[in-house]
Amino acid sequence: MASFNMISLNAQQKRALEFVSGGHNLVLLGPAGTGKSFLVNRVVEICSTMGKQCAVTATTGIACSVYPAQLKPMTIHRWSGIGDGRYDSSEMKRIVKNNVRYKDVMDRIFNTDVLIIDECSMFSKRLLETLHEVCSLKNPQLYFGGIQVILVGDFVQLPPVPCATYNEDGSYCFESDIYRAAFPHHIILKDVIRQKDKLMVEAIREISLGEVSIDTISLIKQLTRPLNGERNKTFCN
């Protein structure tokens, strides 16, 4: 295992990094504030010490903005050339292989050892399967062409966006046979690091699951306050 500072990591985070340094695909899940983005940055550090090229991507541009510019984060749609997803997997693979305008995409695929995809709740079954096909240009015998893939996110957050025009039904990536075969390792981060108020942590957890207790309802009511009249008027105009 690569040598790196593990002092500030909890047991779940350390286990996740063991999978990463071992070259395994990984699904890293956890609610807001559990240190997923922090861990992604540690993954990049590990890849660097191991001489591996790591690509940091996400399903949205906003999620990409969380990461330092020097990591050159970009959407998975841009990284893979999939774009708005109008082409099916076989057609997308053919385009990337034969269209000179996709040379940068081919270079990224062939030069990437580890691919991180953040906000994976919005990563659809169709997109996952198309990504697999495109990456197989690197090595058709291996899942994702042999690229180590790390999915990061929380499946109770935003779901994939359906698009009837491009035959995107909005199925989750975990509904794909490729997901079940290629991602045997799952780590769920449970310790909320960002927020220390236990009542607030539990309230956020319950709301995200849609199972709100009386205590959470009481906490929310305690936070109720009248809005300043002038400000409220401004917001309504």
Task: Considering the chains and any ligands shown, give keywords for the structure.
single chain, 237 residues, alpha/beta, Rossmann fold, 2 domains, 6-stranded parallel beta sheet, 6 strands, globular
Describe the sheet with the most strands: 6 strands, parallel
Could you name the CATH class of the largest domain?
Alpha Beta
CATH arch. level architecture of the largest domain: 3-Layer(aba) Sandwich
Rg, alpha carbons: 20 Å
> Overall mean pLDDT score?
89
Number of helices: 11
Q: Tell me the domain tally.
A: 2
What would the principal axes of the Cα set say about the shape? globular
CATH topology of the largest domain: Rossmann fold
Strand order of the largest sheet: 3-2-4-5-1-6
Helical content, roughly? 40-55%
Strand segment tally: 6
General description of the model:
This protein is an alpha/beta fold and 237 residues long. The protein folds into 2 domains: 11-188, P-loop containing nucleotide triphosphate hydrolases (Rossmann fold, 3-Layer(aba) Sandwich); 198-236, no CATH class. It has helices at residues 11-21, 36-49, 61-64, 76-80, 89-98, 103-111, 125-135, 177-182, 198-209, 214-222, 229-236, and strands spanning 26-29, 54-58, 74-75, 114-118, 148-153, 186-188. A 6-stranded parallel beta sheet has the order 3-2-4-5-1-6. Strand 4 (114-118), helix 7 (125-135) and strand 5 form a beta-alpha-beta unit. The chain is globular, with a radius of gyration of 20 Å. It starts with 10 loop residues before the first helix and ends with a helix.
